[in-house]
Design brief:
Elements: E1 4-9, H1 16-29, E2 36-41, H2 44-54, E3 60-63, H3 80-85, E4 90-93, H4 96-101, H5 106-118, E5 122-127, H6 131-135, H7 139-150, E6 161-164, H8 178-196, E7 205-208, H9 216-220, E8 227-230, H10 237-244
Parallel strand pairs: 1-2, 1-8, 2-3, 3-4, 4-5, 5-6, 6-7, 7-8
The structure holds 2-phosphoglycolic acid.
2-phosphoglycolic acid binds at residues 9, 165, 170-171, 208-211, 229-233.
Length: 248
């Protein structure tokens, strides 16, 4: 049985105090669910303090990005060693906003992936096509390239999570229908099968892009959807708690 992950990506939102208050309320209002992991991804400035709030709970901590070196003269960057030291278990890599605004390439993302794995972090590799690419009939080709290049030389030795996040669905209120998402997840699993054989059945594939309390249940009913990566709706306690309490 693949594990289910409900992830809250806070992006560049919440000052330290606001982040602590949100984490605290989420902790107060949720209980562990069998085979479901909740992971919060606050900005770097709140990782440590949110981590402390979550310490005695079932909720896990993750970072939104990292650099691939362990340390050195890389002004403004954060290393996987630093993330581990504040209690992160996961790290999001290759989010479409990183690809778009910070020109992150598949090659860079792949370097980060190997570095994260080496330090014992579980990478959540984000992939997804733009609207133009989908309308041009290129969605599968783009996703295949991102998955294969992002996972280059991985060989299935350590745990990796994939998040399918169609760019046209992120922050737009336009969610992929469960059918569209499910079809792409199935396609991604076929690629994983090609790469690592039967191990592909154990890799969780999350969906991301305008996940809300009123569409989470239908998405989670799909067998190929093993969880959700939530942006906007993870910033409010009630909506994120409702998403976490999805029903199949
Ligand atoms: P959204 O963001 O839920 O606000 O669409 C999802 C994401 O970018 O991870």
């Amino acid at each position: 049985m693949r594990k289910i992950i409900i992830a809250g990506n806070w992006k560049m939102h919440k000052t330290k105090g606001d982040a602590e208050a949100l984490a605290y309320s989420i902790k107060e209002k949720t209980k562990p669910r069998e085979n479901v992991e909740m992971v919060l991804f606050p900005p770097f400035t709140s990782l440590e303090s949110v981590g402390k709030i979550l310490q005695d709970s079932f909720i896990l901590l993750g970072a939104q990005n990292m650099f691939y070196e362990k340390e050195g003269a890389f002004t403004g960057e954060i290393s996987p060693v630093m993330l581990k030291a504040v209690g992160c278990k996961y790290v999001i890599l290759g989010h479409s906003e990183r690809r778009k605004y910070f020109q992150e390439s598949d090659e860079l993302i792949n370097r980060k992936l190997h570095s994260a794995l080496e330090e014992g972090l579980i990478p959540i590799l984000c992939v997804g096509e733009t609207l133009e690419e989908r309308e041009g009939g290129k969605a599968e080709e783009v996703v295949e390239t991102q998955v294969k290049n992002g996972l280059k030389n991985w060989e299935g030795k350590r745990e990796v999570i994939i998040a399918y996040e169609p760019v046209w669905a992120i922050g737009t209120g336009r969610t992929a229908t469960p059918e569209i998402a499910s079809k792409m997840h199935y396609f991604i699993r076929e690629i994983l099968k090609e790469l690592v054989g039967e191990l592909s059945q154990e890799i969780s594939i999350l969906y991301g892009g305008s996940v809300k309390p009123d569409n989470v249940d239908e998405l989670m009913k799909e067998e190929e959807i093993d969880g959700v990566l939530v942006g906007g709706a993870s910033l409010k306690v009630d909506s994120f708690v409702r998403i976490y309490n999805f029903s199949f």
